[in-house]
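Researcher: Structure for this, please.
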Amino acid sequence: MLEELKEANEYIYSKIEKYKKHKIEILNEIEEDARINAVPIIGREVAEYLKFLVSTNKNIKDILEIGTATAYSGITMLAEIQERDGSLTTIEIDETRFNIAKENFKKSKLNGVNQILGDAGEEIKKLNKKFDFVFIDAAKGQYKIFFEDSFKLLNEDGIIFIDNIMFRGYLYRESPKRYKTIVKRLDEFIDYLYQNYNFVLLPVSDGIGIVYK
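Model: Predicted structure, token format:
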């Protein structure tokens, strides 16, 4: 979460907690597990934005997710395309999280999930289908590669949603030395998106970027 917007996000979160209860119980369990074990999942405000985009865009049927984690974002999106006979293809490099996600998807009782264990930089290239929506939340230093590979698979009128693109605010304030390379790549990636695509950058949670094809 961007520190500058912490209070605003907390206010939004309080409203979401009051008025937007989860309809799928396993999402509450995943949130609690993430809190206890420091699993990097999307915040509630980002989840609500994802739900809004997917549910209101009736053309979205097939979704590609890069970075499954423990299936929180995947279940959130998949629930919105059940009545469209939609599908979610989701890629995770960590085997432990892959297996946890597998159980969570099972508990959600949702249909249409295709899990892939492997490096997204390799696995995206193997896919032989088109998608209406792509969600990227994986290794920040590889965002440009993930984006370029998935954009090739995106249908016309499709959307790519990039989470954590402003990386804790380090793109515009001093960052620890260990993050210098990631910060440089993300900054260059944002310039690249502005220069070449229909792109918008929003200061929601930890920063999100949206590209429309």
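Researcher: Any notable elements?
Model: The two ends are 27 Å apart (CA to CA). The longest helix spans residues 180-196.
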